[in-house]
Amino acid sequence: MTTKVAIFGVGLIGGSLALCLKGKPGITVIGHSPRPGSLSRMIERGVVDAATLSMEEAALDADFIFLCVPVGNLEEYLEELYAMPLKPGCIITDVGSTKASVAARARSFSLPGVHFIGGHPMAGSERSGVDAASTLLFENAYYVLTPSPDVPEDAYSRLEKLLAYTRAQIVRIDPVMHDQIVGAISHLPHIIAVALVNQVCDYNDNNELYRTLAAGGFRDITRIASSDPLIWRDILLSNREVLLSLLRDWNAEIGNFIGLLEGQDGEGIKQAFEKANLFRGELPERRKGAITSLFDLYIDVPDTPGIIGQIATELGVRHINLSNMQIIESREDVPGVLRLSFRQETDMERAKEHLHSLGYSVYV
Ligand SMILES: NC(=O)c1ccc[n+]([C@@H]2O[C@H](COP(=O)([O-])OP(=O)(O)OC[C@H]3O[C@@H](n4cnc5c(N)ncnc54)[C@H](O)[C@@H]3O)[C@@H](O)[C@H]2O)c1
Ligand SMILES: O=C(O)C(=O)C[C@]1(C(=O)O)C=C[C@@H](O)C=C1
């Protein structure tokens, strides 16, 4: 028996889900977009088994429908879907970054045997579109599901079982609580990143050295400022009340720093960094596969030609499995830092020992 999975909006998230599900036993993935250009792109990238401009064709007989469109379009899709003769047992889910509004809207519809279960993979990127999709995007990430109390357990379990192909860890959370928490750890950081970049952009209008000197710290904290403006417009407006309250708390937090500086309170500044260091150091190490792996090593390396190849070869001949390497802020005249990432702690330990024995400065 075939399981038909329809994906509406095959961009970064929809395309990554499609890649996780396509080719799995008994699963057929159908992509839907109202735009011919998006349709040909998803076919060219090979993320779906078939694609259609027709919403009805995609939804017909579907066992699962994933809404992977911008948050501002979710409710109109729900409305249209619930007006169609969907297959009894069909599960509609979404991947939107806010959950309360879509959950409330879904409660106003009903179709026999059809259930809505809100979802939100806590993984993503500042990139968008199907070209940025990856099978590894959700690996090791948390994937939030927000079923309303009337969703039968067997429907929830069927979705959970399908999502096992993403290799994400499923967590069940109330939609209102989700928006409160994700507002603080995802939406507020995006606002802060954009505000900071725009502040520096204005200074840079009078002195281009701002852009020239922007280095690791600025880049680390502002990567997400490059996120898609329309996707984020919708997210922020959908979580408006929560964000207004968080921004007031943020003002107080910044006001605290103003007070510390005005009072030349060195002890207070030190304590603020210590508190942040402690909390950040305790963040779970479970991170997404596409971008980082679980165990990282840092090595000081002279920036000479061939050095990276030499290190990779040293590890390769010893069958030490490396999953990623990256040079951090390397320039011609200074030593660079090379980050080596491993999936297994034992590989990291063996690499540390071996590179140390070769005379490299290695640290975890
Ligand atoms: N980007 C992230 O990091 C991230 C992470 C988790 C969840 N999300 C959520 O996933 C959803 C999709 O975001 P994305 O990052 O994949 O964006 P994306 O731009 O990569 O993909 C969006 C897709 O929806 C299509 N689309 C846009 N407007 C449409 C419309 N009016 N009707 C039909 N299709 C339309 C686009 O063609 C595209 O295929 C959003 O709801 C977002 O909140 C994003
Ligand atoms: O890693 C990123 O670039 C992201 O912005 C991913 C991120 C996040 O803020 O963590 C962004 C939006 C999502 O809804 C979930 C995850």
Automatic annotation (TrEMBL):
Span of the signal peptide: none
Domain ACT: 296-364
Alphabetic keyword roster: Amino-acid biosynthesis, Aromatic amino acid biosynthesis, NAD, Oxidoreductase, Tyrosine biosynthesis
Pfam family, one: PDH_N
Swiss-Prot/TrEMBL GO biological process terms: tyrosine biosynthetic process
Keyword Cell wall biogenesis/degradation: no
Pathway: Amino-acid biosynthesis; L-tyrosine biosynthesis; (4-hydroxyphenyl)pyruvate from prephenate (NAD(+) route): step 1/1
InterPro entries, sorted: 6-PGluconate_DH-like_C_sf, ACT-like_dom_sf, ACT_dom, NAD(P)-bd_dom_sf, PDH_C, PDH_N, Preph/Arog_dehydrog, Prephen_DH
Domain Prephenate/arogenate dehydrogenase: from-to ranges: 3-291
UniProt-listed Enzyme Commission number(s): 1.3.1.12
Catalytic activity: prephenate + NAD(+) = 3-(4-hydroxyphenyl)pyruvate + CO2 + NADH
Stored PROSITE patterns: ACT, PDH_ADH
GO molecular function, one term: NAD+ binding
Family per record: Belongs to the prephenate/arogenate dehydrogenase family.
Protein name: Prephenate dehydrogenase
Species the sequence originates in: Fontibacillus phaseoli
Classification of source organism: Bacteria, Bacillati, Bacillota, Bacilli, Bacillales
